[in-house]
Amino acid sequence: MNEFIELTEEEWFDTFKPIPNHIDDNASFNDGEQGYMFETYGAELDFVKAQDPNRIWTYCDGDDSGTYIFQGMRIVNRIGYFVTTVPFDGSKDYQIQISDEDLYECENCGEVWEDEVAILHYDKFEDLAKCAGCATMEELKEIEEMENEDLGKMGN
Prior knowledge:
Blueprint: E1 3-7, H1 9-16, H2 42-49, E2 56-61, E3 67-71, E4 78-83, E5 92-99, E6 104-105, E7 112-113, H3 116-124, H4 137-155
Parallel strand pairs: 1-5
Antiparallel strand pairs: 2-3, 2-4, 3-5, 6-7
């Protein structure tokens, strides 16, 4: 079994040094000066396939949520590819979490939570990014009313 290594996006950039996409001036993962992600088709894919396999990384949707970068060329859930100047160690499995769409942080107290109620808060009130402990009674009542309306619509 390979050693599992989790890195932040910054640690991954600093350690493996992805090369800029020289084919597309508007490539994703742009740092303000240049983009680093290569697409999954055409000349960009041809370029990626021509690289040393232990310098290719895949940007993917996670199975449950979020997005990740994994070593190697993958097909399932792929969003794009990266090519790095520093090769990865094939005896290790790397995971770089880029986003976690199911985690929410209260703008008041910093509490982080993951549940259906949090999704309702964010979907219905873009400006209400508060946990139940920090939301005002009026905000909580409004959310409850909207949830009840949605349940009523589902029953019809």
